[in-house]
Amino acid sequence: MKKASNLLLSKFNRQRSIKAAPLLSRAYIFENSPSSSSSSQFHSTGRHLQCCAKTRGLIFKLHQFQTNPSRNLNTLRKLREKSDLEEAFESGKTSGEMFRVFKDMEACEDPEKALSFADRALKVLDQDGKPSLLVAVALQLMGSVSYGLKRFNDSLGYLNKANRLLGRLEEEGIANVEKIRPVLHAVQLELGNVKTAMGRREEALLNFKKALEIKEMTLGKDSKELGVGYRDLAEAYVSVLNFKEALPFSLKALEIHRKGLGHNSVEVAHDRRILGVIFTRMEEHEKALEQNQLSQRVLKNWGLSSELLRAEIDAANMQIALGKYDEAINTLKSIVQQTEKDTLCHWEKFADSKRCLEIACGNLDKKETVSPIEVAEAYCEISMLYENMNEFETAISLLKRTLAILEKRPQEQQSEGGVSARTGWLLLLKGEVPQAIPYLENAVEKLKDSFGSRHFGVGYIYNNLGAAYLELDRPQSATQIFAVAKDILDVSLGPHHADSIETCQNLSKAYSAMGSYTLAIEFQQRVIDAWEGH
């Protein structure tokens, strides 16, 4: 989800079924990755990545926005600018003049009006039907404005057309390559943003990589902007859980910024924060904590209190993962002292914890129409705390409220899939199997669109879906689903990974339930062989 953005992909929390069989996979909350830097090239991402082993109930007040006393004067000034620009556009004689005026209007006008002027500009620029760079730029701007209006299909159409046109201009030598590249870079970025918003993240990565390749050709190897580009691509890989691919780009960003800006640079601190997230997801917690501590020093020196607070929360989660519970408690106590109100959920005092969470939910209810995505994320976090207390009913209720918000926003498809998966998983734990199946089936469809059909997260959900079918005495359906899950996990994790072995075990049980004992024994033998080699 987004704080101004999306749902971070929390560390997948491994949970075992409360039943003996079949084995359920860990439940996932998929959250979108962010871009930390204000100069991020990926406009569709704005959330700071967090380290999420189970977040221990830190609920922070939403930002309060103060009104600007000079707003009325600014509004009058903008209205005058609008009038002047409209007049200039109407009197434009050449395509170049009209296009310059349009670009000025885009900067100060509402998107609907900007799109209208872009359309008019395109008709003028494209009158003769000949390919030109100006037509490509107009299409790119129309795609950008449509994206801002959340008209993703329209935006994709304009941007794809611009992309094809730029390719033709380059192939036929109609325009100078040096002039084409900046426009092509913008088009590739916007294509990545739109596909991300549509849940097509794997496709988006290809566009982001092309955009970075253009930067590499046009900028110096030590350019700060190139460093930001490397970091942004690393974050894009993190958003699809591909941490191994993310790592080298994150390291390149750190090398460039450390060399050009010094160890005490804010950019270096952001790079280290991303590295901390990547190392955490790779379960290299000592390295993650080292990067986090180095990042904290810089943030403290620069007085960046809000970002420092996030880094300290990350550090607490890393300490928990390393079993350093006393250090984690001290870190969290320090965090509480820095916040406006003590809202730490006491781990051992469940009554106090529940009261704290009830108050938090009451406050969030009032904010739902104003900041729906932020509220949805908070509901998810609170639901995980209720889950820790074995309050499954309340946790499920909060997840359903989260889904009600996300279902209205197509750009949150990945988040919707993750929340749906967790809802189905909790319903399975409660024994409400028929109710769980629609949520798991919905999660599969949403996450296949976001990550691709062969992603290991999809494999986990298939495994849980197979367990649900087996519980309902539908062994044939269960066998088919377990087989799909096994294929995915064998490829993505390897056949000797613990979760791949468990899925093979489930497949053996499904064949046994069907009376296909020869196949059941065959897969059970595979399980034995795999554990022996584990």
From TrEMBL:
Pfam families named among the record's database cross-references: TPR_10, TPR_12, TPR_8
| Membrane-spanning ranges | none
Q: Which UniProt keywords apply?
A: TPR repeat
- List the SMART domains: TPR
Residue ranges of the TPR repeats are: 185-218, 376-409
Question: Could you tell me which InterPro entries the record lists for this protein?
Answer: TPR-like_helical_dom_sf, TPR_rpt
PANTHER family assigned = KINESIN LIGHT CHAIN-RELATED
Its recorded name reads: MalT-like TPR region domain-containing protein
Q: Which organism is it from?
A: Gossypium tomentosum
